[in-house]
Backbone:
């Protein structure tokens, strides 16, 4: 038989949950940590919801033992977290900060103590500000060497204990928000040319990091996490089907083809040429991208929502920097690329208070597409619901989150039954945390954290929500009881 068809979730399935350094740690200048681009960006008036910062976040830096203990009591199999580059190299390069290395040593050892598999993201958006000051960060090819040097330091220090590595979190999001929408650092808008150049640098950093890891630890498992929004054609009109094809090539395959095949999709490249925005590549780059792609073990997928593609007239809507960051339903706006596609709302699907569509079948779609196109295993590295939660009599009842996760896990099981190899499912997020642009009121966690937008609010105490106990059961029954 060509492959062993699995029945339900495999016995070694990694039930997990995820976070990112900037969103949970706090301790923004503790123990020699350097300043990151986000430490700086959040201080620009108007950039984040009610001027929230990650200065204190949910204080995971000081409370990681309490958080890990709760994970252990829940039975979590894997915890995905990211490392803050600025704790390891406060200036991005140069001298290493032993106290920073020690923090993650402690965290990893604490997880292993309870048999929780650490899954480490090398880069989840918080770049050393010093590199921005030295050479404009991702805009310069110089970042590739600094990134690989940083990653190798992590592999040297933790490679004996960490088996799962994610090189990069949502390259498509941090680059489009950073250079097209002006909503992430460095806050540039509509700079297509730089956007594609930055992405090429990030691709080279990813690829060289994969090669370095496999040289040091050939058995390690590695991939990148991609924010994957599968796309439906608006209707059966051929021009809308073509809009979907354009969307897929430019918004999905542009990244995933590089991770999996080591090359850019041809039609997207042709479009970039027509616009004069192709990235500059160096001799040998293609070879490196291909070698790394051959060594990648899985596609990391952060799945939240699907979208719709409809043909967009040459005079139609462009990229906007307006989003619903307040939780006031119905305030998001249609965006698009003139001459190609736009992304109207999908009337068939409900939405969250932040106007994200809720579409459980989309997670199955992600797995199916990755399986058919790349034949790679999938790690769901994020999936979850951002919602307003309330404490009532010391408890948090979040049936909406349970319903959301249940429906997604059911579809994930179908994907496995379809023959997709799914290695892990990490919810977003473990504790409540800072939602980059949406403050602390948009909560995702299994564990409620007592704090609000104001930096001095709350006790930071942890309260497991109803979903915490529900997921504990899911893990215990390996997904049989949902
Ligand atoms: C992903 C990121 O984009 O989605 C996370 O990897 C982020 O860091 C999550 O928090 C949810 O997005 P948001 O904007 O609701 O916080």
Residues:
């Amino acid at each position: 038989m060509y492959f062993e068809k699995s029945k339900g979730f495999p016995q070694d399935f990694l039930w997990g949950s995820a976070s990112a350094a900037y969103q949970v740690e706090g301790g923004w200048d503790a123990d020699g940590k350097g300043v990151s681009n986000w430490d700086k960006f959040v201080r620009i008036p108007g950039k984040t919801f009610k001027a929230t910062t990650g200065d204190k976040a949910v204080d995971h830096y000081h409370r990681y033992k309490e958080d890990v203990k709760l994970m252990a009591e829940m039975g979590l199999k894997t915890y995905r977290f990211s490392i803050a580059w600025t704790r390891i190299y406060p200036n991005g390069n140069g001298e290493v900060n032993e106290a920073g290395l020690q923090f993650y040593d402690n965290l990893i050892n604490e997880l292993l103590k309870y048999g929780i598999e650490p899954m480490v993201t090398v880069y989840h958006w918080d770049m050393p500000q010093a590199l921005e000051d030295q050479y404009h960060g991702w805009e310069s090819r110089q970042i590739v060497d600094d990134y690989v040097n940083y990653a190798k330091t992590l592999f040297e220090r933790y490679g004996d204990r960490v088996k799962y590595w994610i090189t990069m979190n949502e390259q498509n999001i941090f680059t489009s928000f950073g250079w097209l929408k002006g909503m992430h650092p460095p806050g540039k808008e509509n700079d297509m040319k730089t956007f594609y150049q930055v992405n090429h640098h990030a691709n080279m950093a990813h690829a060289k990091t994969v090669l370095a890891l496999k040289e040091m630890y050939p058995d390690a498992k590695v991939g990148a996490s991609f924010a994957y929004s599968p796309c439906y054609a608006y209707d059966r009109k051929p021009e809308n089907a073509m809009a979907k094809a354009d969307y897929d090539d430019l918004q999905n395959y542009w990244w995933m083809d590089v991770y999996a095949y080591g090359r850019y999709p041809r039609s997207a490249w042709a479009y970039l040429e027509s616009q004069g925005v192709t990235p500059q590549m160096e001799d040998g780059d293609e070879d490196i991208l291909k070698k790394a792609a051959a060594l990648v073990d899985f596609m990391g997928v952060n799945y939240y929502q699907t979208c719709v593609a409809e043909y967009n007239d040459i005079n139609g809507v462009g990229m906007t920097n307006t989003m619903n960051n307040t939780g006031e339903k119905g305030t998001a706006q249609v965006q698009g690329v003139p001459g190609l596609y736009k992304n109207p709302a999908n009337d068939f699907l409900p939405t969250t208070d932040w106007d994200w569509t809720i579409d459980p079948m989309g997670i199955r779609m992600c797995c199916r597409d990755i399986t058919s196109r790349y034949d790679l295993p999938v790690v769901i590295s994020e999936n979850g619901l951002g919602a307003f939660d309330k404490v009532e009599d010391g408890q948090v009842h979040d049936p909406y989150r349970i319903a959301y996760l249940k429906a997604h896990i059911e579809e994930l099981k179908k994907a496995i039954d379809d023959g997709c190899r799914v290695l892990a499912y990490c919810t977003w997020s473990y504790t409540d945390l800072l939602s980059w642009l949406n403050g602390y009121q948009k909560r995702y966690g299994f564990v409620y954290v007592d704090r609000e937008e104001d930096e001095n609010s709350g006790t930071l105490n942890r309260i497991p929500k109803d979903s915490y106990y529900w997921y504990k059961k899911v893990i215990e029954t390996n997904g049989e009881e949902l």
